[in-house]
Amino acid sequence: MMDSDQFRKEAHQFVDWIADYFNDIEKYPVKASCIPGSIFSQIPAAPPEYSESMQQIFADFEKVILPGMTHWQNPGFFAYFPANNSFPSILAEFLTSALGAQCMKWETSPAASELEEAVMNWLKSMIGLPGHFEGVIQDSASTSTLCAILTARERSTAFRVNHEGMMEQIVMRVYCSSEAHSSVEKAVKIAGLGKNNLVKIGLDENFSMKSELLEKAIIADIQNGMKPVCVVAALGSTGSTAVDPLPEIAEICKRYDIWLHVDAAYAGSALILPEHRWMIKGVEQADSFVFNPHKWLFTNFDCSAYFVKDSETLINTFKLVPEYLKTQIPEHVNDYSNWGIQLGRRFRALKLWFVIRSFGVRGLQEKLRFQMDLAAKLKSWIDAQNDFEILAPVNLNLVCFRYHPHGLDDTLELNRLNEKLMLAVNGTGSIYISHTKLDGIFTLRMVIAQTHVELRHVRDAWNLILEKSREITD
Questions:
Q1: pTM, two decimal places
Q2: CB of 205 within 8 A of CB of 253?
Q3: E strand or H helix that includes residue 423
Q4: Which three-class secondary structure state does DSSP give residue 103?
Q5: Among candidate residues 346, 296, 349, 354, the one with its CA nearest the CA of residue 89
Q6: 288 vs 278: CA distance, rounded Å
Q7: Residues 394, 436, 376, CA angle at the centre, nearest 5°?
Q8: Residue 277 in 3-state DSSP?
């Protein structure tokens, strides 16, 4: 068994490796190129009977595991949305792992509970949420959205579902745009409402929800004897960072007494910039709001900031205190295990505290503005090419585009061509981009958000895309 002296020695070597990893990260292929089963086949079928040295274990990490990793912290990573990291966050995770605390209740780690409350208040102030919101850290926006839908379900039935189940309940309906994240559908299924009761609302030319279609759907459902319980508004949709019209949606929800949840998982980080607060006009009428610092605030996964207007309803949805968890602690402390699905909770607030203090609000703002400027440059380069086109508004730092050679207008052929281009680009290992489909069009996505991305990385990526586009059409 490793003792403290051995740990000290190994830990120093690990820190050296991590520092070297970040110094050399551009030398690694961004996307793993292994075939299915190639990692599994290198791992023995049975565990070792006797202790192995850390030198052996780490050698296998480098030989077996590292070649099968996609390097999300590489500045050539432009796919999906990022899972950003930073050195302050890594250092905080060292301490979190060392403490090994299970932070389910105030009593099990008072500092963890009170730091979480304080840091969530910091975030609330930083992004401009009204003071009446209260926050809790969840593991992901998917979990946060599930919490919102479960809470909406219980509020709409006076908590009867928690007591009696769904069998005798009226049909309940949830609404979102057709560009909303797939986690909304998953949450509706888990909540027992049934995926057929998720109503996907049509879009305008900017891929935002049409509020007039939302109200029509709500009225029709009420007339048909169903109960609207929740609307999920996207503040920065996954496909194109489209922003749903929050003021209009909020008024509709108020009119029909429907829970309004705002999913700002990625784009919410941009609210630390005053010039982007237009996105949350009307948020004071929302019931819940989520964004992920682990996407664009340089805090490593997982860390999802979930805010609610009515914490009592949230707590009453989830609170369950068996005898072995009862304490003599006063009721006014926050036992965050009652604020969501998990009983066991990691000390996530520590890394967020480290990151905010290390960067400072001004430093975070500078990083986000810089990355949005890089996206604007990429858009200008695309606009300058006659055979490329922008396919969605560039609201933040996501650029949606496609290759469109002159004289080729068949949608299926263009879709195949752009998929071929994406595979050719990703196959080089230099960069990694992803895609979506907007209105049936295969759309290339580049997110300029990796922690250490610079202008040269974006320029090199664009030059590579141009080069490969010429190769596949020669």
A1: 0.91
A2: no
A3: helix 411-427
A4: coil
A5: 354
A6: 18
A7: 20
A8: helix
**Can you tell me whether residue 258 is helix, strand or coil?**
coil
**CA 236/CA 124 separation, integer angstroms:** 18
Q: Which two tokens stand for residue 172?
A: 């309940």
| E strand or H helix at 219 | helix 211-223
Least Cα distance to 263 among 294, 228, 238 occurs for 238
Report the run of H or E that residue 250 belongs to, with start and end.
helix 246-256
**Residue listed under structure tokens 């890594």:** 90
| pLDDT tens digit at each of 474 positions of the chain | 788 889 899 999 999 999 999 999 999 999 888 888 999 899 999 999 999 999 999 999 999 999 999 999 999 999 999 889 999 999 999 999 998 888 888 888 889 899 999 999 999 999 999 999 999 999 898 899 999 999 999 998 888 888 888 777 789 999 999 988 888 999 999 989 999 999 999 999 999 999 999 999 999 999 999 999 999 999 998 888 999 999 999 999 999 999 999 999 999 999 999 999 999 999 999 999 999 999 999 999 999 999 999 888 888 888 865 544 555 555 677 887 888 888 888 889 999 999 999 999 999 999 999 999 999 999 999 999 999 999 999 999 999 999 999 989 999 999 999 999 999 999 999 999 999 999 999 999 999 999 999 999 999 999 999 999 998 886
Question: Which residue is listed with tokens 């967020």?
Answer: 352
Which H/E stretch holds residue 308?
strand 304-308
Q: Rounded to an integer, what distance in angstroms lies between the CA atom of residue 310 and that of residue 54?
A: 50
Distances (CA, A) of 456 to 69, 80, 125: 24, 20, 34
Within its chain, how far is the Cα of 381 from the centroid? 28
CB 290 within 8 A of CB 304: yes
Q: Which helix (H) or strand (E) holds 263?
A: strand 259-263
Domains, the chain, ordered by start: 1-31+70-86+360-474 (3.90.1150.170), 101-346 (3.40.640.10)
Give Cα 11 distance to the centre of its chain. 31
Give the other-Cβ count within 10 Å of 88's Cβ.
20
Strands 134-138 and 304-308, sheet pairing:
antiparallel
Segment holding 306, helix H or strand E: strand 304-308
